[in-house]
């Protein structure tokens, strides 16, 4: 040490590990990490970061259009006089313009009296499903078009007509709980037929549409 110089003092830094442990920050961080992992946020973030931005934007844009046309199908369904289930269907061109729409009801010229509508056997013998009405009233080929249905995807019988018409995509809400007992098997069969025929189909959470 030179004369007149001050002695060098090494500052006493705190023990960082002990500080973090004693302050509880370590346990808080561990708890937060556990919650993030359990919530699935980490997996979602990893998937999001690995997604092509252009593809993700296209997907989000398509989802907005899907919800829009499901709302249109829902509005169309209100025209049905069926006291049990009101079905609406909208067929959309690739440029996102509507080609046709339909709802479940009796054929033209057939009286839809309360007596007939409230007799299930008679009603089922006379009713034309909404999807079929949309296909029959279209004034153009439907190859490559998209079908939107409300309140659930097509039944097994209608799916055959959808496939034969050349429609390549079907979008509908998920089957509501109160309709599962009656329609779950038919909806399952329709999905299997679509898969076999190469028709893509998607179910959207109803709460995101209503």
Automatic annotation (TrEMBL):
It comes from Bradyrhizobium diazoefficiens. Keywords: Hydrolase. GO terms for cellular component: cytoplasm. GO terms for molecular function: dCMP deaminase activity. The lineage of its organism: Bacteria, Pseudomonadati, Pseudomonadota, Alphaproteobacteria, Hyphomicrobiales. This is CMP/dCMP-type deaminase domain-containing protein. Residues 64-201 form the CMP/dCMP-type deaminase domain. PANTHER family: DEOXYCYTIDYLATE DEAMINASE, DEOXYCYTIDYLATE DEAMINASE-RELATED. Gene3D superfamilies: Cytidine Deaminase, domain 2. It comes from the Bacteria.
């Amino acid at each position: 040490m030179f004369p007149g110089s001050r002695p060098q003092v090494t500052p006493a830094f705190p023990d960082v590990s002990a500080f973090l442990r004693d302050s509880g920050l370590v346990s808080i961080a561990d708890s937060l990490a556990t919650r993030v992992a359990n919530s699935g946020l980490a997996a979602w973030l990893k998937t999001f970061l690995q997604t092509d931005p252009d593809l993700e934007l296209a997907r989000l844009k398509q989802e907005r259009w899907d919800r829009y046309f499901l709302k249109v199908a829902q509005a169309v369904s209100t025209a049905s006089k069926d006291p049990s289930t009101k079905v609406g269907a909208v067929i959309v061109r690739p440029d996102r313009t509507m080609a046709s729409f339909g709802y479940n009801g009796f054929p033209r010229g057939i009286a839809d009296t309360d007596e007939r509508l409230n007799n299930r056997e008679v009603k089922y013998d006379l009713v034309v499903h909404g999807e079929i009405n949309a296909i029959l009233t279209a004034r153009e080929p439907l190859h490559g078009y998209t079908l939107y249905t409300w309140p659930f995807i097509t039944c097994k019988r209608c799916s055959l007509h959808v496939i034969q018409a050349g429609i390549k995509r079907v979008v509908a809400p998920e089957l509501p709980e109160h309709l599962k007992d009656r329609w779950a098997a038919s909806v399952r069969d329709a999905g299997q037929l679509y898969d076999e025929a190469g028709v893509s189909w998607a179910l959207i959470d109803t709460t995101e549409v209503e």
